[in-house]
């Protein structure tokens, strides 16, 4: 509270059009901590003008106008701005980009995409490549690195200017971050839509698997050195059928052997149980397990696997 008869001098004025509630909360929390260190003569008010909300930062007494004390205030405000941008502005801007650019996404989808985009943004700003590769326990360190970048730019700006417009500071002093936000949103949305399409495809394949009656009890899957697959039954006989021959015949028409072909073959012969003699964790294993779920299992080390090291088949 301002004391009666006390003269205050404005040191900095912060203005914002869109982030007033967030900024007010962070200034209030920060000033409490500053006052605990004896900065009782600092006062922050709030007023509206021309669609903007302004927060003048005032001090009283000649002591607080000394260079060292003014630097303390610059550091305090720079810290508030850094927290505001990293914790609030990044999220709000990404949410707005998603609403404007991808109206077909529902609220839940936008939330999850925004979380992934923020993570990817922070990692890229910290010099990394892929947010998905950063362990959760390291994300806080990455975020602090981004905060330090923003803090440094804000402090440099405040030392030369007595007024800071949040939106203007982001647009001109953090233009690299804004540009990267658009890139991250596009990339994350593209990845998300591809994953959604894959999930829908897997769901459809599971439907086909569920409605089919098993045509064979057990199928063993082996991989050849050239990456193609060989299917044999419990008696070590190659699995053949009219339908399977038709699928395999398409290979001569330019279809490439791979996980999609393997899944098509397995759906066609509809086994009750699938044993994969393949490398655990490989794309083929994960794809088959996603489609066939409990029907599929990975060999834990039969004599054939141990002898051939996944490189030959019957």
Summarize the structure.
With 314 residues, the chain is α/β, with parallel strands linked by helices. It has helices at residues 20-36, 67-101, 107-125, 136-160, 166-173, 175-211, 242-249, 259-269, 283-292, 303-308, and strands at 8-16, 42-44, 47-49, 52-60, 163-165, 216-223, 229-232, 271-277, 296-298.
Tags for this model:
Nucleotidyltransferase, domain 5, elongated, five-stranded mixed sheet, 2 domains, alpha/beta, 16% strand, 10 helices, 314 residues
Overview of the molecule:
This protein has 314 residues and is of the alpha/beta class. The protein has ten helices and nine strands. The strands form two sheets. Strands 1, 2, 3, 4 and 5 form a five-stranded mixed β-sheet that branches. The protein is elongated, with a radius of gyration of 31 Å.
Question: How is this fold's topology laid out?
Answer:
Elements: E1 8-16, H1 20-36, E2 42-44, E3 47-49, E4 52-60, H2 67-101, H3 107-125, H4 136-160, E5 163-165, H5 166-173, H6 175-211, E6 216-223, E7 229-232, H7 242-249, H8 259-269, E8 271-277, H9 283-292, E9 296-298, H10 303-308
Parallel strand pairs: 1-5, 6-8, 8-9
Antiparallel strand pairs: 1-4, 2-4, 3-4, 6-7
Helix pairs in contact: 1-2, 2-3, 2-4, 3-4, 3-6, 5-6, 7-8, 8-9
Average pLDDT number:
84
Series of secondary-structure elements, N-terminal to C-terminal: EHEEEHHHEHHEEHHEHEH
Main β-sheet, in a few words? 5 strands, mixed
Number of domains: 2
Strand residue content: 15-25%
Total beta strands: 9
Distance between the termini: 86 Å
Low-confidence stretches: 251-256, 309-314
Shape: elongated
Radius of gyration: 31 Å
